[in-house]
Amino acid sequence: MTSRNWVKLFFNTLLLGGVVTLIVSFFVKSDAYMMALQPFNAFELLGVMLTFLGFGFIFSVISQMGFFAYLTVHRFGLGIFKSYWIPIQIGLILFAVFDLVYFPYQKAAEEASIWPYILTATIITICSVAVAYVKAQQTNQKAFIPALFFMIVVTAIEWVPAINVSDVDYTLLMIFPLFACNAYQLLLLHKLNSPQQSANSAKHATSKK
């Protein structure tokens, strides 16, 4: 990937994380907005929006760190485990899906129901399968398991800080931008690395000279 494409990916993902978090905050943190609207205070409202936008930027950076860490781990996995890397990823995916239910439920209050956590893990898994399917269709079928591994396992790891807070609002506030940013990076990577894209970048650099 060229430095120009990397910068483009970084800022686009940063913007996506900020916008998604801001939109989600309207629903999960509506009380923060109501305090600024009753009575109406423009500066306080702007401050609340900038706060959630800033949270989104942070979530986006976490997503991007996880993405590039995954690319490194994937290369090491292919080099060390070779043909066993796919079964290992499948095992880790199953473990992560289980952990998406067990770990948050253990952090919840004693009277909490387990079903919301099962529903959350199911939705994340279904959406991850959809993203992995699109990735495989756009590249090749061998990309399905690695894409699914990234969308479930890496997203779950990135989500741990919000789970540790044991605050449902911030848990929801973080998962949506994380998932959106991860899906965006995953589906865009092969396009930025395509021969045609590289040729266009080289042509653009030559024309500047």
Automatic annotation (TrEMBL):
It holds the Pfam family KbaA. Keywords: Membrane, Transmembrane, Transmembrane helix. Coiled coil: none annotated. One of its GO terms (biological process) is positive regulation of sporulation resulting in formation of a cellular spore. The chain crosses the membrane at residues 9-28, 48-71, 83-102, 114-134, 143-164, 170-189. This is KinB-signaling pathway activation protein.
